[in-house]
Amino acid sequence: MENEALIDQTVKNALRARYQGPERHYHGLAHIEAMLALARENRALLDDFEAVEAAIWFHDAVYDSRAKDNEARSAMLAREMLAGHTDPERLSRIEGMILATATHEPPDLGEARADSDAALLLDMDLSVLGASPDVFDAYEHAVRREYQWVEEAMWRAGRSAVLKSFLTRPRIFQTEPFRQRLEAQARKNLERSLQALQGTV
């Protein structure tokens, strides 16, 4: 069962439509496609590739920048749309991975292999933080557009808090391959963005 495709074309088409909504400037189809490419690139490190692929497809399926329960609603949507496509235990692991993207803290899914897959999923989701400065800046601009309803002073305070929360972590990336490749650049990008938000550059 674990080798069967979890997401058929009908489900993918429905999700693609969601990700192409006009309010999605960063959390859209290009983000999903980039994560899927990283999953394929790191397939040898994944225990259950299809479950991770499903979590990628669903993790931002519900996205409203004014809401605080997007991940929970995305996980619920995954449960509804994947019911009957896999066993309940595997579906719970997929939900757990989706829910973990709310805090980007590694979840305890009760099994070392599943926890490892979740850590890789989180690192793929955050990989843009360690991108080249121009790609990172485009990401920051796109996120700001998703929150264009937030007044500038509030945005600067809120976004600064988010960036600081990542910078104060002992490590941004959970897995060694991502940490070696992206950690140093991510910290440079975050520091630079934080300084800009605080008007010190």
- N-to-C SSE string, H for helix and E for strand: HHHHHHHHH
- Extended strand count: 0
Question: Mind describing the biggest β-sheet?
Answer: none
- The number of helices is 9
**Shape summary:** globular
Class inferred from helices and paired strands: mainly alpha
Helix fraction bin: 55-70%
Mean pLDDT: 94
Give the count of structural domains. 2
What report would you give on this structure?
The chain starts with 8 loop residues before the first helix and ends with a helix. The chain has 2 domains: 9-128; 129-197, no CATH class. Helix content is 63%, strand content 0%. It is globular and about 55 Å long. It is mostly helical and 201 residues long.
Q: Can you give keywords for this protein?
A:
0% strand, mainly alpha, 2 domains, 9 helices, 201 residues
Layout of secondary structure:
Blueprint: H1 9-19, H2 29-41, H3 49-58, H4 70-82, H5 88-100, H6 112-126, H7 133-146, H8 152-167, H9 176-197
Helix pairs in contact: 2-3, 2-6, 3-5, 3-6, 4-5, 5-6, 8-9
Concise structural overview:
The protein has helices spanning 9-19, 29-41, 49-58, 70-82, 88-100, 112-126, 133-146, 152-167, 176-197. It has 201 residues and is mainly α.
